[in-house]
Design a protein that fits this description.
Order of helices and strands: EEEHHHHHHEEEHHHH
Pfam families: TetR_C_43, TetR_N
Low-confidence stretches: 3-9, 15-21, 132-184
Mean pLDDT: 74
Keywords: DNA-binding, Transcription, Transcription regulation
Protein name: Helix-turn-helix domain-containing protein
Strand order of the largest sheet: 1-2-3
Helix content: 40-55%
Number of helices: 10
Largest sheet: 3 strands, antiparallel
């Protein structure tokens, strides 16, 4: 169970005999924070396919400590994905509420999100929105748990949109509606709804290309946040790449 402390931070609490929850001990809470920080770093660098042992090593705790807090890797992945999805949703809401101009609101959201690095940790079902399925070569490893800039490239159609085509054994078919069960996972439905409002406003104002979708905007966030060893270089590369991508989104 999670509780919110006086600083607004979400803390994990443990159930006790009377049905109530008691806060974690100081050392247990510290270990949890180390594990979560390490998981964000490792998954951001290597994708959600990274093993739990890498997370434990980065957190400087035993792998048993990680599994005591998160009984399976799926539980840890969901926790991280939910936190990053909620962060992006809040950033989108802030842009909607504080920017009157539609394009300013959309570009502010993109710049804030890319700078935070949250795009590298978006849940896979959000990044797959708008693509029905990708057929990989027989025996290929599952790529769904990796963020876009770590995946093999997929052929793009005219205007940069993903369309029908085949390349290196991959086939991409046309867009579809995303099932509600997928959208609700990790808070994705709320994120898609808020970003959709940003996209609709910019499109209706004639400032966004008519073929740009919510999926395209989320892919910009994911791909414009490269993981580089030098922080200054990463910030500069992200800003430069985002400038180029923003120009590609604007209507002519």
């Amino acid at each position: 169970m999670q509780v919110q402390d006086s600083y607004g931070q979400i803390r994990t609490a443990q159930p006790v005999a009377n049905g109530r929850s008691a806060p974690l001990r100081v050392d247990a809470q510290r270990n949890l924070e180390h594990v979560l920080r390490a998981a964000r770093e490792v998954f951001g660098e290597l994708g959600y396919g990274a093993p739990m042992e890498d997370v434990a090593r980065r957190a400087r705790v035993g792998v048993g400590t990680v599994y005591r807090r998160f009984p399976s890797k799926d539980v840890l992945v969901r926790r991280i994905a939910e936190e990053e999805t909620a962060r992006l949703t809040e950033q989108a809401r802030t842009a909607l509420g504080q920017e009157d101009e539609p394009w300013s609101a959309l570009s502010r959201f993109l710049r804030t999100s890319v700078a935070s690095g949250a795009g590298r940790l978006l849940p896979p079902q959000v990044l797959r929105v708008g693509v029905d399925d990708v057929v990989l070569p027989s025996g290929a490893p599952d790529e769904a748990a990796r963020v876009p800039h770590q995946r093999a490239s997929v052929p793009a159609g005219p205007g940069g949109s993903v369309g029908f085509g085949e390349q290196d054994g991959q086939r991409v078919v046309g867009p579809r509606a995303v099932p509600a069960a997928e959208q609700d996972d990790a808070g994705a439905a709320e994120l898609l709804e808020v970003v959709g409002r940003l996209v609709d406003r910019a499109r209706e104002a004639g400032e966004l290309r008519t073929d740009v979708t919510v999926a395209d905007v989320l892919l910009v966030i994911a791909t414009a946040a490269p993981a580089l060893p030098d922080a200054a270089q990463q910030a500069a590369a992200s800003a430069r790449l985002l400038d180029i991508l923003l120009e590609g989104l604007r209507s002519r």
